[in-house]
């Protein structure tokens, strides 16, 4: 019995092993089952008869054969089908607009604004000559507004694709004319009642929000909010109710946020906030009302921004750091305006601190660590600002603060502590910049003047210590690579030295006219361009060029001069402008400097030309300002000359970029074109009389619309 039991156990063990082998073969997808004889250590090799084979093995063999047949039948059509399938072609990538196309997209809107302003001022001219009554003028303006809307609607129905640009412009033009007409009828001409005008304004605001909602166009949304907030800029210094305008700004900004949240228009959110804050600031500047309601308006705008930003923050994942930076910067802008407007900014800042501290607590409950960091940091900054408002810095701290930052930076460099180096570098840079902006060197024996000299010593010591620690790296050609401590840092030392020398010269030598410093610097800089780098080094030349640019910027503001100084002042500006223009011509025509120096450098010619053209423009612009200040030329000629100078420089930039591949110069041309238009709208309004203003705006607006349409059609043909 025991022997039979042992035999059965051995046979069962062999069957289990066989089943395991069969399962492994099924998993591997083998072609057949291997019939193996199971050997045990106690028994020799055996071939059991078929009739004694266990029924489990038979069932497994039958099932395995059936599964193989089914698998083979399924594999054949799948392989054929997969071979017949083609690889799916990836969808074509969406073509992104170039900068030029975006500018062409915006030009019709800009010129529509100019044309609308020209029409409005033209109607005012007609009213001043009593050709039309105020009521008839308001009726005509409303007819123009409704007409633009109807024309845009008809064009949208007939050609919804090709006329998309101009329909958006027409919708926006009808909106701005209606808003401004309502404000003019109620505030300026007293034709409409305040409540009726408020009702019409709400209707137009609803229309503006509706077209933004229907069109889903972020550019249109920005255009609507921008044109809606033009009212504080156009009221000038007339007597009006500041509370009504503040309410108007809050209503427009609040209604537009519904569109912002609906379509995630983050750019509209930021631009509308900036325009609204500037509008509040303009209203405060034009009125003598209490600052309390303006501060409350700033706080309400900031709260709305925070709510909308929180709502739009969820879908942001790739660009969330940028949006966090915008929130941080715009809050700094809010703090700046509150400090500027409020008589005592302590309570408003405490209120904002409580708001952001609450946001930090709420975000902490939702495990939003990044928002907690932002809100907490903003709360700390507001608390720091409150402390700065309450406690003024005494004269001793003017010296101690830069000194402590300098010592901390030196210890960080010695210990090679990266965190200390970064922290104290930022602090030291901040204190130096604040000192240059705020402090003066008069009288001579003062802590402020001493601090100028001490900071210069700090910079020299830092340069010597950094040069001692720096190990030069060489490239494959055996030339030393560009190093910050040796090549870049001396530029900042030279910059600080020239700023101090300019202040000292204007205070103790030339009496507000640093002509000696300016002329010597120009001569030395020009000479360095023709001297070999073996004599002066590769960095000194660029330091002198940079100092030349800084000195040019310092000569941009106008100042009072008498006698011969009037002509010396003009001579300095002319010399600087001619030097810059000569360098531009030499580089563009590939002259001596280009062949002997610039062509051997790895330098961006496009960027260099752009900077040089900006410098020449600023110098010539300052020359016109000085002529106006000295009453040498007629006032209207100077104002017109400035505007013409901007347009001419923009035209030259675009012409140069058309003959050569100069993208940055082209961008400069479009930028100057925008600046010229903004100057025409916001600056020349006060400088020119009403007749010239209306005529100039109508002409430029009409020509601009015509040229922009031609540019768009030409760009379409090229595509």
Automatic annotation (TrEMBL):
InterPro entries: DUF2339_TM. The chain crosses the membrane at residues 103-123, 135-156, 168-189, 195-214, 219-235, 241-260, 267-286, 292-313, 325-341, 347-364, 371-392, 398-415, 422-438, 450-466, 486-502, 514-532, 539-560, 566-588, 608-629, 635-655, 667-682, 688-707. Keywords: Coiled coil, Membrane, Transmembrane, Transmembrane helix. It comes from the Bacteria. Residues 2-29 form a coiled coil. The keyword Transferase does not apply. It holds the Pfam family DUF2339. Residues 32-95 are annotated as: Disordered. This is Putative membrane protein DUF2339. It comes from Ureibacillus chungkukjangi.
């Amino acid at each position: 019995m025991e022997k039979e039991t042992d035999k059965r156990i051995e046979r069962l063990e062999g069957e289990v092993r066989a089943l395991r082998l069969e399962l492994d073969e099924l998993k591997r997808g083998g072609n057949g089952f291997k019939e193996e004889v199971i050997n045990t250590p106690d028994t020799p090799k055996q071939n059991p008869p078929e009739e004694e084979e266990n029924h489990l093995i038979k069932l497994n063999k039958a099932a395995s054969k059936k599964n193989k047949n089914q698998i083979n039948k399924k594999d054949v059509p799948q392989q054929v089908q997969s071979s017949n399938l083609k690889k799916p072609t990836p969808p074509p990538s969406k073509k992104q607009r170039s900068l030029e196309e975006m500018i062409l997209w915006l030009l019709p809107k800009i010129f529509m604004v100019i044309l609308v302003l020209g029409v409005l001022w033209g109607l005012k001219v007609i009213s001043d000559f009593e050709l039309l009554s105020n009521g008839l003028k308001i009726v005509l303006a409303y007819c123009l507004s409704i007409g633009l809307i109807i024309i845009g609607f008809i064009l949208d129905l007939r050609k919804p694709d090709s006329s998309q640009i101009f329909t958006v412009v027409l919708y926006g033009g009808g909106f701005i004319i209606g808003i401004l007409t309502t404000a003019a009828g109620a505030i300026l001409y007293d034709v409409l009642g305040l409540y009726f005008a408020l009702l019409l304004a709400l209707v137009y605001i609803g229309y503006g929000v509706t077209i933004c909602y229907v069109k889903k166009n972020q550019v249109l949304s920005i255009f609507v909010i921008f044109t809606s907030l033009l009212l504080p800029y156009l009221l000038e210094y007339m007597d009006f109710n500041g509370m009504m305008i503040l309410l108007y700004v809050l209503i427009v900004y609040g209604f537009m946020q519904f569109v912002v949240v609906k379509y995630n228009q983050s750019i509209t959110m930021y631009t509308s906030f900036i325009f609204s804050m500037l509008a509040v600031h303009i209203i405060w500047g034009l009125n003598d009302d209490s600052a309390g309601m303006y501060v409350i308006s700033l706080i309400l705008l900031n709260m709305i921004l925070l709510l909308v930003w929180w709502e739009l923050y969820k879908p942001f994942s790739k660009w969330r750091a940028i949006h966090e930076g915008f929130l941080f910067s715009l809050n700094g802008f809010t703090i700046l305006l509150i400090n500027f407007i409020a008589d005592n900014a302590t309570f408003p800042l405490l209120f904002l601190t409580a708001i952001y501290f609450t946001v930090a607590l709420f975000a902490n409950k939702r495990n939003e660590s990044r928002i907690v960091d932002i809100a907490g940091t903003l709360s700390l900054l507001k608390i720091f600002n409150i402390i700065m408002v309450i406690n003024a810095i005494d004269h001793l701290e003017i010296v101690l603060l830069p000194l402590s930052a300098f010592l901390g930076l030196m210890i960080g460099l010695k210990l090679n502590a990266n965190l200390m180096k970064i922290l104290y570098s930022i602090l030291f840079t901040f204190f130096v910049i604040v000192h240059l902006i705020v402090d003066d060197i008069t009288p001579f024996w003062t802590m402020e003047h001493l601090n100028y000299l001490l900071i210069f010593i700090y910079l020299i010591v830092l340069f010597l210590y950094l040069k001692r620690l720096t190990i030069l790296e060489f490239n494959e050609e055996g030339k030393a690579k560009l190093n910050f401590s040796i090549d870049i840092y001396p530029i900042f030392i030279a910059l600080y030295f020239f700023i101090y020398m300019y202040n000292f010269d204007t205070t103790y030598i030339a009496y507000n006219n640093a002509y000696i410093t300016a002329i010597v610097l120009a001569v030395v800089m020009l000479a360095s361009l023709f001297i070999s780098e073996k004599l002066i080094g590769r960095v000194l030349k660029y330091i002198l060029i940079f100092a030349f640019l800084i000195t040019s910027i310092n000569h941009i503001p106008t100042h009072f001069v008498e006698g011969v100084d009037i002509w010396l002042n003009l001579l300095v500006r002319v010399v600087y402008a001619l030097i810059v223009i000569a360098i531009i011509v030499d580089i563009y025509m590939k002259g001596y400097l280009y062949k002997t120096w610039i062509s051997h450098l790895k330098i961006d010619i496009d960027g260099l030309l752009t900077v040089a053209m900006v410098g020449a423009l600023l110098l010539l612009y300052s020359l016109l300002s000085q002529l106006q200040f000295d009453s040498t030329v007629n006032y209207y000629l100077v104002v017109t000359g400035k505007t013409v100078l901007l347009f001419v420089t923009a035209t030259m930039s675009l012409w140069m970029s058309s003959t050569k591949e100069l993208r940055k110069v082209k961008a400069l041309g479009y930028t100057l074109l925008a600046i010229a238009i903004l100057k025409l709208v916001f600056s020349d309004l006060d400088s020119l009389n009403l007749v010239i203003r209306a005529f100039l705006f109508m002409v430029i607006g009409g020509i601009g619309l015509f040229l922009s349409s031609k540019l768009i059609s030409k760009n379409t043909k090229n595509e």
